[in-house]
Amino acid sequence: MKIALVSDCYLPRLGGIEVQVRDLAHQLAAAGHRVEVFTATVGADGARRGRVEVVDGVPVHRLGIREPFGFPVNPVAESVLRRRLGDGGFDVAHVHMGVVSPFTVAATNVAREMGLPATMTWHCMLAMAGPLIGLTGAVPRWVRDGVSMNAVSSVAARPVQRLVGGRGQVRVLPNGIDVERWWGPTAGAPVPPLGPGGRVEIVTAMRLVERKRPLPMLDVLRQVRALVPDTPFRVTILGDGRLRGRIQAYLRRHAMESWVRLGGRVSRETLLERYASSHLYVSPAKLESFGIAALEARCTGLPVVGLSTNGAGEFVHDGVNGFLARDDQAMARAIGRLVADHDLRDRMHLHNVTVAPTELDWSNVVRLTVQEYERALVAHRHALPAPAPAPAGGERPAGALGA
């Protein structure tokens, strides 16, 4: 099968969608499919305006333009997309949606006009954007024209299903992970020893941006300190971002620098080492559609404490290998409980190092992905005829939702 993967964001930008689409491209290629990536993200060397790079055997069409602040956009991308998707002999387009994805929207509209089967994966929590997207009527039109819908978790799928209504089913197509790489090295491993004085090591990894909620997490950690004042623990925050200065100021203001440290951005190998020497992982984001960092931590044995509003429920079973709290106060209580209760923490660790999340291994995710492509082919055959292409000189702007 020849597949066009379409995403506004792609490497060298760093983020969940970027890494997942890159890994999916390579996993599909390894399974024998022909894959090409179409993105509005400019290359590391400035590649843009249609230049094609071949990265590890996968052609990457760099259709971005140089824009202020480096945003991955191209408001005039439709004509190039129409030509390249039309001439490429593709069997299916797999478009990857975030809350703001003008390039992906343009590619979806082009696929509809050309009669190219398409499936759409939602990587975002719609939240307040849901009603606004609903007003456009774009999602029902896409489904009417044969675009199959899926999302990376159950919580991400529910608001999309409300937009789709009874016109079709929004399936869960989870993010993938190399289970052998993350779970294999610590499979069956004992709980790492406590630090000096019986100190519990807590770790988290995130981009230091508002959406990940690092500052509210610090409020939660202060609550934990008050709940278990006699149990020593230390917190390591891995990652970087524009909030780093504000976080450092917060730590100084509240005298937390002795027990909360910023570890910066680290490689996957170093991340694995840090997880393997820690005891507990915290995932504070409310609108995290999946949480690949938390999954990686779970694979290494760490109990995960997160919020029930995010996608961690795909791999965290409340009370079994972590806790899913309803709010920040409940999260503080859950963290405090795991810090103080060594037996409970050890039982959760044992579960994680003896039960691999094989359903999220790339081998299974690729199988589910191909099933989505087959579903898109069937939906395309049963769809109503697509609207005629826009006349010359009358193309819609790339960010327009729907026809």
How many discrete domains?
Answer: 2
How would you state the average pLDDT, rounded? 91
Number of helical stretches of at least 4 residues: 14
> Got a strand count?
14
CATH superfamily of the largest domain: Glycogen Phosphorylase B
Gyration radius, in Å: 22 Å
Query: At the first level of CATH, what is the class of the largest domain?
Result: Alpha Beta
Q: What's the story with the biggest beta sheet?
A: 8 strands, mixed
The helicity comes to 25-40%
Strand fraction:
15-25%
| CATH third-tier fold name of the largest domain | Rossmann fold
Describe the structure.
This protein is of the alpha/beta class and 403 residues long. It has two domains: 2-176 and 361-382, Glycogen Phosphorylase B (Rossmann fold); 180-358, Glycogen Phosphorylase B (Rossmann fold), CATH 3.40.50.2000. Helix content is 39%, strand content 17%. The protein is built from 14 helices and 14 strands. The protein has helices at 16-30, 78-87, 102-114, 129-136, 138-144, 154-164, 179-182, 214-227, 244-253, 268-276, 292-299, 328-340, 342-354, 362-382; strands spanning 2-7, 34-39, 51-55, 58-62, 92-97, 118-122, 148-151, 170-172, 200-205, 233-238, 260-264, 280-283, 304-307, 322-325. Strand 9 (200-205), helix 8 (214-227) and strand 10 (233-238) form a beta-alpha-beta unit. Helix 2 crosses helix 3 (102-114) and helix 8 (214-227) crosses helix 12. The longest helix has 21 residues, at 362-382. The protein starts with a strand and ends in a 21-residue tail after the last helix. The model is unreliable at 392-403 (pLDDT under 50).
